[in-house]
Amino acid sequence: MADDGRCPPDVVSYNTIIDGLFKEGDVDKAYITYHEMLDRRVSPDAVTYNSIIAALSKAQAMDRAMEVLTVMVMPNCFTYNSIMHGYCSSGQSEKAIGIFRKMCSDGIEPDVVTYNSLMDYLCKNGKCTEARKIFDSMVKRGLKPDITTYGTLLHGYASKGALVEMHDLLALMVQNGMQLDHHVFNILICAYTKQEKVDEVVLVFSKMRQQGLTPNAVNYRTVIDGLCKLGRLDDAMLNFEQMIDKGLTPNVVVYTSLIHALCTYDKWEKAEELIFEILDQGINPNIVFFNTILDSLCKEGRVIESKKLFDLLGHIGVNPDVITYSTLIDGYCLAGKMDGAMKLLTGMVSVGLKPDSVTYSTLINGYCKINRMEDALALFKEMESNGVNPDIITYNIILHGLFRTRRTAAAKELYARITESGTQLELSTYNIILMDFAKTNSLMMHFGCFRTYV
């Protein structure tokens, strides 16, 4: 900002520029402008300091934020809250607590936001007992917990499955005249779903209506997902219909839960009907939507339902990608259906998709598990000839398969090749080698491998 006869920028001008730069995400430029401001002997005010500290803390640039704090005159509660939030979000809880103590020693009275910030971090890291101490400390200081305070601690208890503590806090909440909102009911529904308490899920949803609170789209989504997971498919479908009757639009998450559950409980026709219903409503689910359902079904061993869903994709104009094929191939391999898995590989290549290391590793692992090492090795060679480089996962699978089928010489050759290729070995690789060499009493090789690792 050259001196050209115009009025030099004042603190308000700098505050506006710095705030604008932070909003654009240009932290470095904003920080440089702050130092330019100091160089020009323009004194920052409380707005400047708080704006800079809040933005730097949000960006987790804590060294810079603390540098600014040290020169700030009379930091206030907002200042300390920003610093604490920055330390908490960057996983530095000890420093956050240190700032809390400094705040109190400096005579700055913490507010509800201060306590909520600390409690949120502690609960997200499973430290509900410590969070409860913060809660009790807050009450002793005469501060009244708000709905966010209660919700934070309730969610912490729910995540840990501490239902007794959750119920006690809920009772205290009601006793203190706090009204349960949509978020609190959502927490309760999730907690009971996690503990597989289906009757409580239904009861909580019913109580919500009894208290005059109309369930919103998030509540319906949560209860439908919970009922699907707990096998109450008819109740889930009933709530789905109610949701639509109330004028609420189900999102992709709701449809994913229902379609997955329908496939799981052998109601493929209804699942197919629901998919076409989605399309009729103008919702065009992408391949990620179907991949999510396929992945769940394959992991549950429901290969038939997975294949039906896969076959449907072509009829509705959704093109499978590499992840789709790899997911289904994994399902077939887990079920020991290697011929079907190889047909999928052939089909994948025929539509112009290139198998990656995950695809090949999945198939090779499938062959190794049923001791078809010749097929595994042939696929390994094909993988390399097609320009797909094996990673350490692939090598580990082959090594383990060779040792398990007592092909020790071939395993040693492969190990030498891995080390020569410069591939980064993992502890799991050494464990495979050491365990199998120990079984064959190859003490010198065992010791040599150990020395290589050390």
TrEMBL record:
PPR repeats lie at residues 10-44, 76-110, 111-145, 146-180, 181-215, 216-250, 251-285, 286-320, 321-355, 356-390, 391-425. InterPro entries: PPR_rpt, TPR-like_helical_dom_sf. Keywords: Repeat, Transit peptide. It comes from the Eukaryota. Belongs to the PPR family. P subfamily. PANTHER family: PENTATRICOPEPTIDE REPEAT-CONTAINING PROTEIN 3, MITOCHONDRIAL. This is Pentacotripeptide-repeat region of PRORP domain-containing protein. It comes from Oryza rufipogon (Brownbeard rice).
